[in-house]
Every structure is written in C-alpha cells, then in structure tokens.
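Re: Re: token formats

Sure, here are both.
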Amino acid sequence: MSMHRVLTTLACTLAILTAVLATARPALPSPASALASAPVSTQRTDRATPAVGPTVRTHDGVLRGTAHDGYDTFAGIPYAAPPVGRLRWAAPRPARPWSGTRDATRTASACPQPAGEVPGGSTDEDCLYLNVTTPVGTAPRHPRPVIVWLHGGGFTTGAGSSYDAHRMATRGDVVVVTVNYRLGALGFLARPGLVGSGTFGLADQQAALRWVKAGIGTFGGDPHNVTLAGESAGGYSVCAQLASPAAAGLFERAIIQSGPCTGRPDRPFAPYAAALPSARETGARFAAGVGCSSARDTMACLRTVKVSRLLAAQEGDQQPAYATPLLPRDPAGALAAGRFHHVPVLIGSNHDEGNGWAAGIIQAGNPVTPETWPDVVAAFFPDPARTKAIVHEYPVTGPDGGPVFGAVIGDADFACPTLRTGDLLGAHVPVWRYEFADEHAPPLTPGPPPFPLGAPHASELPYLYDLGGRPRSMTSAQWRLATTMIDYWTRFARTGAPDSPSDPRWPRRTVQSLTPDHTGPTRTTATRHHCAFWNALP
C-alpha cells in the first residue's frame, strides 16, 4: 500500500477515535485511548425497581436512582422514543411515559457503533437515553446550574455514560447531564427527500435539551441556566447548536473543548460539517453498499437492513450536514456573519493536540524522517506549493520527526482554528479562552509511545471527569489543576465567567494556560502554534 493511501486511511480512521476505549485493549493509534473506560452496557437492561435509592417524579414518571457519598445518580433516562422501525432516520419523538417506578440505577445501551470504542460495540438502536448526576438533595435552596455534556467520538463512537461527573457535580454544586445521541450513518445519513437529512444526531441533542428544560427542575437544576458543553465532535456539536435556529432558547452558555467551529474537510483530524450535496453523495455510496440503491423505495429498504450490516457499510468518519433546515449554514460561516445564538462561550484546546495521531501513524509503520517528511506532508496537503511551505515552516532534522508531525496536525486542525473561532465569537459575545498544557498528562494508551505526547487530544478530560467511573492516576499537582479546572468550568456555568472577584486570574482577550505548576494568562499561543503561517496558507 502506498504511503499516501496508508496515511489518508489512517487520517479518516483516527479522526473518529475520540471516544472511550477499553483499558483491556492493546494500544491503538488514537489519542482517545486516554478515555479508557469500564464496559458500557450494549444490551437492554432489566428495569425492575430496586428496593432503595433516591426517587424523583419527572414529567414522564417516577425514577429511582442510586445514592452515593454526597451525590445521587439517575441513569438510563429515556428522553426520546426508541428510533427503531419507521422511526429509523426520523426526527426524535417524545418518550412514552411509564407507570410505577422506573429503575434508573443502570446505564442504557450506547448508540450503534463499531466494536472498540465501546467494548464490544453496540447494535442496539434503543439508545436515546441520558444520565443525571446531582449533589445530594433535589430541593436545594436555589436551583443549581446545569451542564449538559455531549461526548466526542467523531460522530461515530462514544457514550454519555462513560463520563462520571460526580467530581464536577459535588465540587461545583451543579447538575450534570450526559447524553447519548445517534451516531454514524444512523445519525447523519443524507438522502434526497429524506426529512432531517444529515442531522438526526443533532436533532437528538436538541430533544435532550428540551427534556432538560422541561424536567431538570425536579433534580434540583435550574432550567433557565443550562450550559451546553462538549469535547471534539461533542465540541463541534456545540458549534452546530450555536448556529442552529431550532436550538434557540435551549441553553444559556456554551463550552467548546477541542472542537473548533471552523473545521474544514481539508484538515481531516478535526470535526467539520459537510455541505448537503457532499453528504448526499456519501449517503448514495452507503445505500449502494448495503444493496438498497436500486430498490424502488430506497429508504424502506434501508430501514429493513440489520444494524450490523449498516455499521459495516458506513464510511469511517461521519459529519453533520449543513444547508439543511436544522443547520442552514456551515457553523464557521454562521459565526463570521454573527448569525448564531449570542451566549457566553468558554473555548479552548490542548497544547499538543496532534501528538496522539502522529504517534499512532508512526506506530503503524510510517516513520517520519527528513527523507519521508515531504511525502508525509503531501499525504495530507496534496498541493505541492502547500507541501513545500509546510516542510519549510516545520523542518524535520533528525530521525524522530514525530513531534514535528504532531505539531502540524495540532496547529493546523486545532490550535489555530480554535483561536480563529474565539475571534469570530468574540466579535459578538463574551469569550473565555484556555489552553490545557500539562506536558506530563496521564498517558493516553497502555504501553510506551514513540515519543513524549505532552498534552494531546482528549487529555484534559480526566481532569474534569472520571472516565468509565475510574479516576486517573495523577500527581498532587495534577489533582490541584483538576480542582482548578472544575472550579473554572462550573463558575462559568453559574455566572458566565470562569473567574471571580476573589480569583481574577483569567483576563479576557488572553488565553489561560492550564498547567499543574502555573495557571495564568499567556499571549504567545498564536506564535507558538505558527498561526500567522496557517492563516496565510491558501
């Protein structure tokens, strides 16, 4: 296989791997293996009512959850009807109310996805559930801010239940909601005449937000103070919801982690939105791949195909489609025109976003040396003039060019687009920027990487969540940073600003550097990441 084909295939594959990986798996070429998780249920669970536990009465019925030390959890709450049968590739419908008391002690199925990111994968379409974590006491003196978390995974993998939010909930006195939404072709198929084409997963997110607005009060949350937050594809989902007219009034603040709103198809590692014609071309290939392209009624044929076959036929990466009713404009264009929901935004990326991907590509047998470097660059930037410019800007002078390759990926796909997104947002709304820069962040994969990874994609997540219910092994300084970050995130959710009069250390119009040894503003982010070069590159 040619170098170009190897690298291009890996680019498409690795760009989706930002969901939770199982610790039992061998090291994979993905930064997301930082999110090693306990197994996520992929089967429908018995909903018999447990004998003890906190109960709440929602608009759909009574739930019994699980009491923990200082917090309660309510898992597997349906926010929409199962998208099965005729509801496959249809807008989410309201969940059916239940009688009696529903068991909310165990998580529900992850949405259909290939094996790997969720151990064993999932073929269960009955997956539109969310999970609530709240400090003890569902009747606080004042309603608590609400954070709705959208997981990453390249719009192809992941599950809300992989994120244990109890540290954020208890430390910040907030209610945290984690959400499943449809993924892959089941979430983003586009076909001519198909209502909702290319945006079913985004519509699910909006249905979850409507559920929160209607029902989070019974968990002690404030329906008038909802922060929509996400990482990678989840962060880009926040961008899409900012640009979606249908999301008006569904959230009051936004947090975007490593999912800049200016993603582009020629920068293959960061998420982006596809134009509807392109998305329909992808849909046509998908229909042909499962034998439905020549059927009299293509959609009727597709709705009869087994999930396992659909997963096998879908392309490696998926994107939401714009030029659609739910997402009329590319989020980047919407931000540039000021046509988005004007709410405060907290946005940032990690110092070494690209290193995990670079390490994986090298481990797959593609060394980066002075001799191979021009071919490696050409695999991702085929235009000869661009290749020459990048090789000159980022020279590889020794036998281990992995860090240089990682810098190109991180700077081009994340750091500079994140700064650009912040500029576009900042012309209209308050924006707070950060860069997570712990150079000794807990390792992303078992086994030694080919070079030190620093703070790669997804490495900030263990500082905010226990992934798969297990805390990461961190130093005391790293735990202090985790506490600081949770304070910043939850203070932003409460007030719209991450700092406070007693802790005024995050000036606007600067980037807050987050490290174990120092947390404070920096004005050199654009220079360190060669953003003048990338912004000028045709």
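Second one below.
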Amino acid sequence: MRGEEKDQRTPARPARLALGALSGLLAGFTSLAVAELVAATGRPQSSPVIAVGGAAIDATPAPVKDWAIRHFGTDDKLVLQLGIVAVLGVLALAMGASAVRFRRLGAIGVLLFGAIGATAAVGRPDSAGLTDALPSVVGAVAGALLLHVLVDRLTTVKRSRRSLAPESAAEEREAVSSAREGWDRRGFVLAAASAAVASAGTGAVGRSLAGSRGRNVVASRKQVVLPRPGSSARPVPRSAELRIGGISDFVTANKDFYRVDTALVVPRVDATGWRLRVHGEGVRRPATYSFDDLLRRELIERDITLTCVSNEVGGPYVGNARWTGVRLADLLAECGVRPPSRGGPADQLVARSVDGMTIGSPVEDLMDGRDAMLALGMNGEPLPFEHGFPVRMVVPGLYGYVSACKWIQEIELTTFDSYDPYWVKRGWARRAPIKTQSRIDTPRPFARPKAGTVMVAGVAWAQHRGIDRVEVRLDDGPWQEARLAAEDTRDTWRQWSFPWQATSGTRTLTVRATDRTGRVQTDRRTRTSPDGASGWHSVVVTAE
C-alpha cells in the first residue's frame, strides 16, 4: 500500500451517488451566487432566476395565472421564485449524481442551464442586450468547474509523499482507510467546504451591492416633496365611512393596497434620471418629460378606487386611495394629440414600463373628461415603489390591465388594429370597463353570529358611473334595500349596511348593486378572463 501513487478503487455506488448529488447541489449554489454577484454589478434584472421567472410568467396561461393569484395572492411571485430554486436544486442533484459516472455530462448540464438563463435574460422586453447574458454564462462556468473538481476528488485519490511514509499510526490508518475507500476524502471535504463558504460570501456581496444601489434610489424618493395640488380633492364626507366592525376602510392604506403585476422584483427607479417619452401616431409635438417637469405642472388630487381584472367575485383586489398627479388629457393635448371623436388617428395609447410591460388604453376614454392622470403621489406621499414610483397611470373606470401602467417610461399613440399589448396577446379583451360589483365584508363566510340583530355590511363599486342602490337577499327571499353610506365621488366605492334580524339556523346572504345608469349587477357568473368576473357575492352563515 505504501508504494502506490494512485488507488483507482472507488466507494460503494450509493455513497458515490449521494456525494455526487451533493457536489451538484454545491455547484448549482455556486452558479447562482456568482450569477447574482455579476448581475448586481450590472443590471439586477439580468439575474437568471429573475429572467427565467419572468419568461415563465410570460408563458403561463391565463387560467394558471388566475389560480396562482387566487391561492397565493400577492405572494405569488415569491412562490414562483422558490419554485424555480427548488427545481434547479433537484436538477443540480441529478446532474451531480450523473457526473460521477459520466463526468462531462454533469458539466454540460450546468452549462446548458446557463445557456437557458442567458437566453431568457437577453429575450426579456427590458433587456439591455448581450451583456444581460453575462451573469448566467459566468455563473454556469463557475458551477461547471466546481462540479468537475468535486467529482474528480470522488473518483481519484492522489497520495502525497507524506502519506507514503506516515509519521504516526493514526496517519497510517487514515491512509489505509482512504485507499480502501478509493477517493480523496480530505480533498473533497476541503473543496466542498471552501466552495460553500465562498459561494455564501459571493451571494452576500451581491446582495450588498444590490442593496447599496437600492439605498440610493430610496434616497431619491425621500427627497421628493409633492407640491400643493392646484385642484385638490374635496374632503371625504363624514358619513361616507360607516362605523361597523369588519368593513373595509373607506381609504385603503398604502401598505394594505393590493399589488398584482408580473414584476418578480419591484423596479427601483431613480426619480432624478427618470424620463417619459411621448410619441406615435397623431403626436404632432413629440416630447420627453423629466420628473421635475411633471412636478412643475399643475397637479390634481382625486379619490379613485382601482380594481384588478383578476379580482374574483367577492375578491380582495380592489382598493381606494387619494391620488396626486398630472392630468393626462392636458399632457396629451400639449403634444398635439386628439381623440378619435375629434379626428385623431390613434385610438390606443400604449404605455410601456421600465420592466417592459405594455398596457393599452382607449384614447377616447383618457380624453373624455374623466380624471385620468400620471400619478406621482398616493395618500399624501410619493408613490411607494410597489405601486409605481416615480410615476404611474391611474384611470377611473378601467381595469388595471388596460390603464394602470406602473413605473411608466414611454407613451406611444397607435391603433388597436396595429398593436396588441401584453395582456391582449394572452387572450384578454382589448377594452375592459370595470363591471358593477358588490361585496359582503361582514359577516365572514361560515361565521356563527348570535341570533338577533346582525349587521351585514360591505362595499360596492362602479367607477365613473357611481353606485345608486345596494340590495341584500336572505336565501331565495325578496331583495331588501340596504342603507348606503354617503358618496364621495362616482369614481370611488360606497360602503353599505343592512341590519339582519337573525334567527337560529343557517342562511345564505347575497348582495347585488345597481349603478347610476340603472344597470343591475348581473347574476351571470363568469370568470375573470377575458374582461373581468361577474356574478353575485354570497356568504353562508349560521346564527346560534
């Protein structure tokens, strides 16, 4: 044994496969850590996890997206990222195990996944070009090299001169054991531990760099002082908010406002460098605006309720806020834009976000006198990053997917016939006015209130038309009119209440609303796609 320079024998197959799988996992971890570091020095959006996740979102059918939103809510993006990492982890284990027998196969697998990440990054709508491929490529090369080194330690043992002449019985026993096992145990453990520590450090440095850039952007938001609006919102009537436990607040706090979008990572845009370009068909005077340009214009302040088209009947994706911004119709008119009713050639405004999202809105609706705006503020402060800082669109009466472009950076005037925005390409309707809807907030489904007077209450909305009446029904009985809270504006939701004289037993409570045009909320139940859910909301409760 002492005279051997190399022992070709290898450990038992199960142990080899397990250690190979561990090698693959470490290689995958290293690959991601290096990629994140490279992305942090350039564009964080070019990270392979973000790029592949974005591509996965784009390729996901609408029903699956709805299912994810319905079950995971605003955590759907976190679930997707964890799912991507989990899948990569399983594949890394498999590649590591296969590399024990077919050494090149594991490295090729790592490089292949790097190529997938690079392709996804370069193919994103907001891609900066081939440089976005670098994080995935560099990360894959680092992972492939590490896997090669670790697998090499598993299949070959090189005996040192010291081991040929051990100085103690313990060293002699270790040398004999290593030779019998047929692998460089010490070298493997050292390489694996070093890789784990280095990868963790690399990931930490990458996060630190990304955090440093983020802190600069946060500072730019803190420096924003919103001027007093030239046209302020009128005070909300006292009687617009009912004092009933369990009902939604009339004004939704920024932290509680729903967020539904496709951005895996919230864009952090520095207001000092932000620009908005306006161009396209019928734009006689194309223009580019800075954030300060918008701040210097006359601002309007309005209470507007927003609704997501992914909101199921009775769902949570609706909220009311006080928005501050620039009237969009004035800015478009300044650029020489005319609505189709006045001879304008463009009937669609396409808004583009910094992350490549495209949203198409009817030009006629934007210029018909409603308070469509480029919003800069929300509930008295600059827009939160999650809700579009520095600038977003807000249009009363239209679902968000055809109006509420966050992180906007470009406005192009075109036609519906010549261009399909992001969601239209995926089967959603081109035009989508918000449907008349109502919701029971209290009592909650399957509640067990005490018999007697039970206050049934909730909200109803029909933005830009207004709510005229809300009715409640017990089981299949007659409709009974609920008491409406005072109306703030026709662009906001209205609270309502109904005192139910409950007797013991299980009952079904159903609500419906009628808008100011006289249209009664339909009982026809439809899904969210292609232009918003419809139907009556009901809850089952048991009085005791």
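Confidence is low (pLDDT under 50) at residues 1-9, 158-166, 175-181. The two ends are 84 Å apart (CA to CA).
- S.
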